[in-house]
Amino acid sequence: MANTVLVGAQWGDEGKGKIIDFLTEKADIVVRSQGGNNAGHTVLAGDKKYVLHLIPSGILRPGKQCVIGNGVVLDPVALVEEIEGLRGQGVAVGSNLVISDCAHLVMPYHRALDSAKELAKGKNKIGTTGRGIGPTYGDKVARTGLRLADLMQPEIFAAKLATRVEEANAQLKAMGAEAVSYKAILDASLAAGEKLRPHVVNSVLYLHKALQAKKELLFEGAQGTFLDIDHGTYPYVTSSNTTAGGAATGSGVPPHRIDTVLGVMKAYTTRVGEGPFPTENSEIADLLHGMGREFGATTGRARRCGWFDAVSTRYAAMVNGIDEIAITNLDGLDTVETIKVCVDYQLDGQTVEVPPSDYQRLSACQPVYIEMPGWKTPTDQCKTFAELPKAAQDYARKIAELTGGKLLIVSVGAHRDQTIVL
Ligand code: IMP
Ligand code: MG
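^ thats the input. predicted complex w/ magnesium ion below
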């Protein structure tokens, strides 16, 4: 019985949704423990495409339970829209979804503050998804946030919201931004709250009982290691712990009940938003964008692209305790003549062991590359590792070896059946 945490080992968009969907076949419960609808997890099931933002990807598999844990920040109106959107696509959402009453609420003033703060930063902007994630976690830490438990008690919610809207409007006005309407937020939130009510539980108790019943848990990490508020390329990060430890704090599942950490990484690197990216490369970006790949699932932005960076994935293996590795998007490199892999950084003429903690020094790092021959053959129809061209096998093995972890999965396309298990 293995409880597994799945984490992104890069800057998000590693293809976690697809791998989660694949692994859910064996798990009983899929848990989200951090982030909010800044996430965009794309899953292709049959000929249908689903993009999930807040709801765990397990929802697409009948008979599986999904939990939105206490560490998630959720926009109640967006969550209701997502539920209704899924129902419109024929997905059953009922008692298979439970939501922690400790999850913090993203309110329209958080989104307004997110935009206003980005605007004020000018060229130093973070490049957020604009979903209000930072300001919501900010309120949580400042102990002024509103939680789902509050929304379940309309009178308490109305009173707390009044205070918060007043404070937020003062801040918005001072930043030259438009004020938000208390009445509009109250009405929309209460209406959404009533629709969410059947799903709201104490998820710690729920998960505790599931563990007692020997259910298998799968934690669906959102974003990636280098967007972690503590371990990422601060301040160009999101506002939650995206690394493995966040699964415990964000769900109330004790750390020793987590058995395995699976790190998901692309066969190359991408990043959306601003911030340092040592192996960024315009040729590989042009190639991937030309193939119609690497446009964001949440914001539609073109992602920045670069070579595989083993210095950072090695660090990700350390901070998450990665046991097993899933490599995705291998087929993205099918036409490349010679593939580069970054194995070291040079800074001021010296090799650095780990990525420097400050973004200025990280930005100044020069990647040291090794070159590997490309395979120049389509891999998207390969069903087993042995069917992959030899050069592709070598490449996948090499990046797993450089990262440190057991190669478990190689993904060669978005469909469920384009998943090679070793
Ligand atoms: P925020 O999470 O909206 O505050 O955005 C902060 C940074 O994290 C920005 O660089 C975003 O592009 C990035 N980010 C947030 N969520 C995701 C995600 O799910 N995938 C990739 N990047 C993300
Ligand atoms: Mg994504």
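Residues 154-174 form the longest helix (21 residues).
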